[in-house]
Fold this sequence. Notes:
binds pyridoxal-5'-phosphate; Lyase, Ornithine Decarboxylase, Chain A, domain 1; 9-stranded mixed sheet; TIM Barrel; 8-stranded parallel beta barrel; alpha/beta; 12 helices; 21 strands
Amino acid sequence: MTHFRYQNGELHAEAVPLSRIAERHGTPCYVYSRAALTGAYRAFDAAFAGTDHLVCYAVKANSTLAVLNLFARLGSGFDIVSGGEMQRVLAAGGDPRKVVFSGVGKSAEEMRQALSAGILCFNVESEGELLRLERVAAQAGRTATVSVRVNPDVDPRTHPYIATGLKQNKFGVPCRDAPGLYRKARELRHVSVAGIGCHIGSQLTEVAPFAAALDRVLELADRLQAEGIALGHVDVGGGLGIRYRDESPPAFDEYARVLTGRLGRRALKLVLEPGRALVGHAGILLTRVEYLKHGTEKNFAVVDAAMNDLMRPALYEAYHEVLAVSGGSGGGREYEIVGPVCESGDFLAHARTLALREGDLLAIMAAGAYGMSMSSNYNTRPRAAEVMVDGALAHLVRERETVSELMAREILLP
Ligand SMILES: *Cc1c(COP(=O)(O)O)cnc(C)c1O
């Protein structure tokens, strides 16, 4: 169910016309639907209802405090990849005992922070990390709970930049090295083994790679159990895709059925780290047409959002649907939707047929995941405002940045 719909020819977020948000808060502006976020979380969680599980929303997909706070209120845990994300989760009211910490490059300081917050688990990605964690935990007089992220060498059949579970990727520990690492972990005094996991990539549109990866991880888990290394959970990572164009990713229920089926009767809690699947369709990027340039080769609609606001098209040649906020009259021309940034890679969409006039509003759809969280200040562009709609109310949840904020930490030579 979509929460961004036309009513009387005008695109709305829930009950609020997008044009009203543009008037009040300006553009570019990210707009989220509270009902869409809540609905996605509840549906995902419900799909695993019969199984002991914990949903740890992957913060990097959208780390805006109001979004994290909403998930915290719904009982979600969190998957973090930095100390900064740890602080965001705490600031948003998240429960540190439901936090798992992923990532290949955890610093000693990040480990200290996470230990003192009392997180659920460190997803360890190398022997060096395990040994550093032991040292840091010893100094802090604490015990670090760990799970090894194995690299199952499974092809997720997604964009190469977001494939993470192939042996040529930097992520995880090769399956054949994992038992040795667990034996080592068992010897350490400030580390306690809790689980095993993987995360093979993002925007997966088939269920088979998830099943293949989980099979490899479970095979390892069984071997470890047989050696007397008891595990409490298996973390299947995130990566479930969404429909941007014509993909048909597995539904939550199908995904859950396949995973829980593989798990069988093992006494392992299932940890899930969905990011995109919970937030992708819950947000749009609202932008205004600045100029129309009708050329002999191509027509350009120059809009006020750019690659610094939404990087996915430039980075992955990702497709986002583009809708005219005022329904449009049909007809129109084929446009390249481009931003003001000085790069030819600065496009939001190619070859879209739209009837446009300067000043029109456009909605870049399905921009809730890896939109704002990947945005930058390139070209000294202040980052966009963010609004969360809840029924007939539109709440500003992040003010637009100002240029003086961007310059605030810079120092001229004497
Ligand atoms: C990015 C990431 C996720 C979330 O991926 P989605 O494709 O957004 O679901 C989960 N776990 C880890 C370790 C990640 O790096």
